[in-house]
């Protein structure tokens, strides 16, 4: 019987997707070598050479090490903290002096000229440049991380350290092969450990623990056992002496034994198939690996995420490879509700992709993304459908200028399409929560000035807890996503029942009196009867749609499938409940 991950999904599905993410290298066996009459061996030994400045040549050869002996020798080039550093391999160090000689032997071309001023320059964040290191005034290769006005933050790709420079100090690399090699320094993280709360109360590696680790591993030749390479970051175990046997103790083990670190659950769960999956050829530019990297598999159950704000819409969202949420599978594929993922740390904002750390997948509760957004947004505008009978989306942000009607800060605007019906009663409950949140902020100031007691805060917290529990547990009518009208819909604005203060952090939200739906004329009930007759074949399906779910249906098979769907049955139940309550 196969193992199951939560949600009754076979463990093998999760394992296959995780291996794809880890760039699992498939080593071809002798049975995979296909030979036929007149055919050559499919997997031939590749040979190549790297031309160099000055007539030197470097030969490329396949590594003879097997995945089971996946150790590399490395030396730290930039120490970050107890579990994070940049390092060189022995092979990569042989290229450093060659590149330095080239960059400092010829005159380089600056990116700024009299015709191309700094304010007109658009730097490519994926391109390599050169700049001087301020401690020795020599040129090294670099990559721009971020830039603004006349300043740029660069990382020296062959060492791992960063420096702030002006745009006038950045130069183009010469068109020489060595200058366009991949980065010679690799980013390394100690696999399977995290800071222990006892020795690192802030949740990050303390300076004391980092200094202890630095004295152990900085400036000496190390041996690394690779577990995985994810997004160019190498996760490994580090040994000060070459391991001999299974009882060898790594720096990772040392930190755990001393109580400076604790093992992560991810490492315990995944190490059964993560170990020995990465060939050294991926990390060494002077080696060529003849294995094949897996392309796929891809599962329709795999959940993908996208940013909600306008500035994040076109960015690829990746989760931290050590997170338990790095592979998320949908155990309710029939559900069409939007899921929400919260992240404590977001990096890569200036690049084309986002990387999320310390993430939490919120439960699959209908309308939960809408509730969370409305509870904390500064301002909110409702987007109605064409006839003004339903709220189909909410636009949240910092509001707009009254004179120009332009957004005050458009990059932070958030548009959320709703998959549940937003009713006035929900806005009233959300306003109560926002009112209590504002009240709590006022009392916190009063408590600091000794004008109030802690009992008031406890009372407010209990009120918020009660209102929030009632709000989350409300029955909501599930609906399909709709297109909102670009034109102004004539509706009455409903002011909040509570009184707010103009200086409140969370001003109370307004709702609108929606136009009466055609439901009152009996059109929904008649439409449901038409659908039943079309399913039996007693009526034509041409131009037929489910008005309750707002779903067009073209064939009898689609009608039957829709009537049996969970969404339709739930909407029918809630429709009749509301109808009889009225």
Describe the structure in your own words:
By secondary structure, the chain is of the alpha+beta class. Among the domains are: 365-513, no CATH class; 518-581, no CATH class. It contains 11 helices and 29 strands. The chain has helices at 11-21, 90-105, 207-217, 251-257, 265-274, 368-376, 424-448, 454-472, 523-536, 556-563, 566-581; strands at residues 4-5, 9-10, 25-26, 48-51, 57-60, 71-81, 84-89, 109-110, 128-132, 139-148, 151-155, 162-166, 171-172, 186-190, 193-195, 222-230, 233-239, 261-263, 292-293, 316-319, 341-347, 353-361, 379-384, 391-397, 414-417, 492-494, 511-513, 545-546, 551-552. The strands form 10 sheets. A 6-stranded antiparallel beta sheet has the order 8-13-9-10-11-12. It has a 5-stranded mixed barrel with strand order 6-7-14-17-16. A 3-stranded mixed beta sheet has the order 20-22-21, with no helix packed on it. Strand 23 and strand 24 form a beta hairpin. Helix 6 (368-376) packs across helix 7 and helix 9 packs across helix 10 (556-563). It is globular and about 80 Å long. The chain starts with a strand and ends with a helix. Residues 1-5, 28-68 and 266-293 have low confidence and may be disordered.
């Amino acid at each position: 019987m196969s193992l199951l991950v939560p949600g009754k999904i076979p463990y093998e599905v999760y394992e296959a997707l995780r291996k794809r993410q880890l760039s699992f290298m498939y080593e071809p066996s002798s049975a995979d070598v296909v030979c036929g009459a007149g055919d050559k061996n499919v997997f031939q030994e590749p040979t190549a050479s790297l031309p160099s400045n000055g007539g030197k040549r470097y030969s490329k050869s396949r590594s003879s090490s097997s995945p089971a002996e996946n150790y590399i020798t490395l030396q730290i080039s930039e120490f970050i903290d107890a579990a994070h550093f940049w390092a060189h391999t022995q092979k990569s160090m042989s290229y450093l002096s060659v590149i330095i000689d080239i960059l400092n032997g010829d005159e380089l071309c600056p990116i700024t000229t009299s015709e191309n001023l700094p304010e007109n320059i658009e730097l490519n964040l994926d391109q390599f440049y050169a700049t001087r290191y301020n401690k020795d005034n020599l040129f090294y290769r670099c990559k721009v991380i971020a830039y603004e006005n006349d300043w740029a933050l660069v990382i020296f790709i062959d060492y791992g350290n960063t420096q702030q420079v002006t745009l006038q100090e950045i130069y183009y690399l010469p068109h020489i092969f060595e200058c366009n090699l991949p980065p010679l320094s690799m980013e390394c993280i100690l696999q399977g450990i995290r800071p222990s709360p006892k020795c690192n109360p802030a949740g990050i590696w303390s300076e004391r623990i980092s200094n202890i680790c630095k004295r152990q591993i900085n400036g000496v030749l190390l041996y690394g056992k690779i577990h995985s390479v994810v997004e160019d970051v190498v996760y490994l175990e580090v040994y000060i002496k070459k391991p001999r046997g299974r009882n060898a103790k790594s720096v990772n083990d040392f930190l755990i034994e001393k109580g400076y670190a604790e093992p992560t659950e991810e490492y315990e769960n995944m190490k059964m198939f993560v170990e020995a999956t990465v060939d050294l050829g991926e990390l060494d530019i002077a080696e060529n690996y003849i294995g094949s990297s897996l392309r796929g598999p891809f599962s329709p159950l795999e959940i993908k995420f996208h940013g909600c704000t306008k500035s994040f819409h076109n960015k690829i969202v990746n989760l931290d490879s050590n997170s338990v949420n790095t592979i998320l599978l949908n155990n309710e594929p029939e559900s069409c509700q939007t899921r929400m993922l919260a992240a404590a740390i977001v990096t890569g904002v200036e690049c084309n992709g986002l990387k999320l750390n310390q993430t939490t997948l919120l439960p699959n509760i209908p309308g939960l993304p809408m509730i969370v957004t409305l509870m904390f947004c500064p301002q909110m505008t409702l987007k109605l459908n064409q006839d003004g009978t339903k709220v189909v989306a909410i636009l949240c942000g910092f509001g707009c200028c009254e004179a120009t009607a332009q957004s005050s800060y458009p990059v932070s605007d958030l548009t959320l399409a709703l998959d549940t019906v937003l009713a006035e009663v929900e806005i009233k409950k959300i306003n109560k929560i926002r009112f209590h949140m504002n009240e709590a902020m006022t009392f916190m100031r009063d408590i600091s000035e000794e004008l109030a007691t802690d009992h008031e805060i406890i009372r407010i917290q209990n009120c918020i807890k009660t209102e929030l529990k009632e709000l989350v547990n409300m029955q909501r009518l599930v609906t399909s996503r709709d297109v909102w009208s670009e034109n102004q819909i004539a509706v009455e604005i409903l002011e909040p029942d509570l009184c707010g203060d103009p200086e409140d952090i969370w001003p109370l939200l307004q709702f609108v009196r929606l136009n009466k739906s055609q439901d009152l004329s009996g059109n929904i009930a008649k439409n449901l009867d038409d659908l039943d007759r079309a399913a039996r074949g007693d009526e034509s399906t041409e131009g037929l749609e489910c008005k309750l779910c707002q779903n067009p249906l073209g064939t009898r098979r689609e009608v039957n499938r829709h009537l049996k769907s969970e969404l339709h049955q739930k909407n029918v139940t809630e429709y009749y409940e509301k109808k009889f309550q009225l």
